[in-house]
Amino acid sequence: MSENLTRLLQDWRGGDQAARDALLEQVYDALREMAAARLGRGRDRTLQPTAVVNEALMRLLGSDTDWQDRAHFFALAALKMRAVLVDHARARAAEKRGGDVAMLTLSHVDREAAGDSVEYDVLALHQSLERLAEHDPRAAKALELAYFGGMERDEIACVLGVSVPTVDRDLRFAKAWLNKQLA
């Protein structure tokens, strides 16, 4: 599937609209699962995974991006989903003046630590990720790709151009740093 997606991305970049349609058909369910995992069982039922994916795809399709491969596409989709979640949380906070802020978990990053799932305010998480990016950009990017992109460690390593053990260290550091910041 990975090679097929890369081919479809390249064909789409060449102007083939049928390749774009085939690509979206293949990745839509995976993107929806990523969004559903981010939203989890939180209190915020006004934002559904389908809405997150649709908005992220609109932003993704509207950008003039030069796709490299499957991993690059999913990394950019992760960025767009993060932006959708943050924009939604800001709008809700403005409506409620902070009263009913959306909560998310880092459960996707915590796969090895069963039952260690903590909910975070999406705006606080976003701000903490921005601060982490100032301190350690690669660790912040690794966490973003794992959490918002649902990417596996080997895919993150490929996107970042580092080894899998380096990704593991970055994810451990980022999680510990965020837990301290958000405690």
From TrEMBL:
Residues 3-182 form the RNA polymerase sigma-70 ECF-like HTH domain. Coiled coil: none annotated. InterPro entries: HTH_Sigma70_ECF-like, RNA_pol_sigma-70-like, RNA_pol_sigma-70_dom, RNA_pol_sigma70_ECF-like, RNA_pol_sigma_r2, RNA_pol_sigma_r3/r4-like, WH-like_DNA-bd_sf. It comes from Lysobacter cavernae. Gene3D superfamilies: Winged helix-like DNA-binding domain superfamily/Winged helix DNA-binding domain (1.10.10.10). This is ECF-type sigma factor. It holds the Pfam family Sigma70_ECF. Belongs to the sigma-70 factor family. ECF subfamily. Keywords: Sigma factor, Transcription, Transcription regulation.
